[in-house]
Write a structure and sequence with these properties.
alpha/beta; eight-stranded mixed beta sheet; four-stranded mixed beta sheet; 10 helices
Length: 284
Amino acid sequence: MERLVEKASILIEALPYIKKFRGKEILIKYGGAAMNNEDIRENVLHDLVFMNYVGIKPILIHGGGPSITERLKKEGVQTRFVDGLRVTDKKTIEVVVETLAELNKSIVHDINQLGARAIGLSGHDNEILNVKKVEASEDIGFVGEVTSVNILPLKELTEFNIIPVIYPVGIDGKGETYNVNADEAAAKIAMAMQVQKIMVLTNVHGILRDPEDLGSLISSLRVEEVEHLIKNKVISGGMIPKVKACTAALAGGVKKAHIIDGRIKHSLLLEIFTDQGIGTEIVL
């Protein structure tokens, strides 16, 4: 009986948050590293389906960097990065699109099997992600910077309680396909849709003041502190584009931004439906 009462108490705690977010759109950016772990993937997708059933409108955008690198290696194509961006020649963009499309199809299938409705999209479809070529310290090929987002197809899907599952490639004015950084794409879509939250799933605990001390987790971080923490290498490596995506989304009108550890069981539900939450919240 105590266990049943505890379950009921958990539902009651979640009720104010269900009321708060019901009918609202929340964007989740799902990283390639987390996607390769079956247990994490199952938990993330279960959380998405639960959110969908209680009336929240999740939008999922996913990357697939590790899978792309692995496939390129098998095909004898060397992976090289410039300014943190993958050098993307004609062969590489073909592999990027094929790999992300396969991952997308698999995610959509799993969501549908769990009882929700999802539709897979690329940023190329319906010109959702319009891009221009990135200018880096050298020519890096078909890598795009998002210039505008067509939200109409996404709004039409969420209106009918369908989960859009998007992979980040875009199209330029000449009809060329470009690889787009998934964190940037997530921020631009979040801004264009004016979602209630952007949630970036990672495979770390959040932002730690001391990487060796899990007790040093920064639970709440103000945007004005970000550059100082980057300068002092508290925020470094792959965390930088994630944090910058969150700060860009906040500057563009998104209400809340969170970086959370996707390895924690039901991390999305813990962040949305509990008083304490997890990970790092970034605020204006």
